[in-house]
Write a structure and sequence with these properties.
Chains A, B: Keywords: Activator, Cytoplasm, DNA-binding, Manganese, Repressor, Transcription, Transcription regulation. Chains A, B: GO terms for molecular function: DNA binding; DNA-binding transcription factor activity; protein dimerization activity; transition metal ion binding. Chains A, B: In the presence of manganese, represses expression of mntH and mntS. Up-regulates expression of mntP. Two copies of one chain form a homodimer. By secondary structure, the first copy, chain A, is α+β, with helices and mostly antiparallel strands. Among the domains of chain A are: 60 residues, Winged helix-like DNA-binding domain superfamily/Winged helix DNA-binding domain (Arc Repressor Mutant, subunit A), CATH 1.10.10; 74 residues, SH3 type barrels (Roll), CATH 2.30.30.90. In chain A, 41% of the residues lie in helices and 16% in strands. Chain A has eight helices and eight strands. The longest helix of chain A has 23 residues. The radius of gyration of chain A is 19 Å and the shape is globular. Chains A and B meet through helix 5 and helix 6 of A and helix 5 and helix 6 of B. Bound molecules: manganese (II) ion (4 copies). The site of one manganese (II) ion (MN) has 4 residues of chain B, from helix 4 and helix 5. The structure holds a DNA duplex.
DNA sequence: TAACTTTTTTAGACAAATCAAAAAATAATT
DNA sequence: AATTATTTTTTGATTTGTCTAAAAAAGTTA
């Protein structure tokens, strides 16, 4: 019985994402925050996910995702990101509009659909936010990336992803003219507040607060 | 409260389709057959749909769809058919593979998605089975069509739709070489069993049983 | 009209997903 | 270590969607 319901898939995806954030065990509260549900609902869901053996659940001590759980989560993430590419590349959505729709589309269950979509999109390796798209076996080829805020002055690089992909943040980046693929050079870093000044495509200078720069990921 | 759940949308769509089939009131049994659920489940759903005023429900006497119900059903049908076009035109699905996937995709709720999909597909007027795609206001421009079995000998026409769009039937049509858009001429009609012989694209002759011909729709 | 058949509804149960309120366990602080 | 604060789980309810079995209504036939 490895078949998950849409809700279970969503919870598992969230658990996977929090796990990847480095922390050892994932807490009920963290999940409830990300899922926008109450902790009581989470406890209930954890019991079910535990029964299906996609997580290891020790009451009061949080959860750890299992290997099968990880595989399943990566399949959902793959679908989510492929749909995001579709929405942006083919339907002219902007990168801040795709997330909610992809959150629905990711639960459509058809192997053929995803294979064909992947092919149709030209087997993309990254989604509109620069996140890697797992292959059909759940393998992700991650590229080394560093926060813009951690760069040293005069270093050059390329914006490859964003850490925060909330609509508000993405629209802000649009406004200031930062985008995935942009060639950048760190011109100045203010000691006082950690804010930075960067040169984009050898043309335009942008100022960013430390907070913003910390959510922009760069490949050297 | 005009928002329907996916299940409610599916029931309503089925009720709409049966209604269009000419019958006055739609029976619980007919719905249960099409929905592949038990009559008891249907009764329950009819109560809910009645409360939401998308159908008029008189216990024991079947249901009639209301005007608002019709509007909503047509929106779901629009989405279903647009997705079918997408699957066939863009993802190389064959016309017998699209139905189940479209039945899932049709419930994705995003106005923008459907607008953009429509635009991306070039505002198609018919789906892969020749059925008309309602516009965003629920208007359908139906074209006059007649069953191949009702044609007179020597009449010419064009195959524009199928009445039965089960995978088995569609694959059979593929096998014999009948397709939407084919120019045909009725060569012979056997009195004995109602079977017909047709000429396709002035090239190939096909034999069809009365049953098959009755499910192929032609425009003169 | 009465008896039988078919259809439909009701009653009672269950699984999934959610919540609020209360209880229990764990963590933090004096 | 005892008290307080926080987190997590439990309990009990609710909604949606489904089922089986039983009851009721409608339709058909003799
Ligand atoms: Mn996303
Ligand atoms: Mn993304
Ligand atoms: Mn269909
Ligand atoms: Mn169709």
């Amino acid at each position: 019985m490895k078949q998950l319901t849409p809700a279970e898939e969503s919870y598992l995806k969230v658990i996977y994402h929090i796990s990847e954030g480095g922390k050892r065990s994932v807490s009920t509260n963290d999940i409830s925050f990300k899922m926008k549900t109450k902790p009581a609902s989470v406890s209930d869901m954890l019991r079910r996910l535990g029964e299906k053996e996609v997580i290891e659940y020790r009451k009061y001590y949080g959860v750890n995702i299992t290997e099968t759980g990880k595989k399943l989560a990566l399949q959902t993430i793959r679908k989510h990101r492929l749909w995001e590419v579709f929405l942006v590349e083919k339907l002219r959505f902007s990168w801040d509009e795709v997330h909610e729709v992809a959150d629905e589309l990711e639960h459509i269950r058809s192997k053929l659909l995803i294979q064909r979509l992947d092919e149709y999109l030209g087997f993309p390796k990254f989604d509109p936010h620069g996140d890697p798209i797992p292959d059909e076996f759940g393998d992700v080829r991650a590229r080394p990336r560093v926060a813009l805020s951690d760069l040293e002055v005069n270093t050059t690089g390329q914006i490859v992803a964003v850490k925060d992909s909330s609509a508000a943040f993405l629209r802000y980046l649009d406004k200031v003219g930062a985008y995935i693929g942009a060639r950048i050079k760190l011109l100045e870093k203010v000691e006082f507040d950690g804010s930075v000044e960067i040169l984009v495509d050898n043309k335009k200078t942008i100022f960013m607060s430390k907070d913003v720069a910390g959510n922009v990921l760069v490949m050297l």
